[in-house]
Amino acid sequence: MKWLSRLVDNASNYFARRKGLLPLIGILLVIINYILPFIFGLDNVITGSNLFLHLGVIIAIFGMMLAWAL
Asked: 0.90 exceeded by the pTM?
């Protein structure tokens, strides 16, 4: 479990200096989700399930919570 503690500590130090990175990645994933149906259509599994939309929203919310805590 020491490796997990080190991983969380390193991630915390990394994101403390880059507070807007995770929300920016989340916004980019939402934009990608908007563009993908125009390229692949709606019959694809990824575009039909809105995978990038859900991942983008989760990552953006997590990033805002992390930035507020740090």
From this structure: no
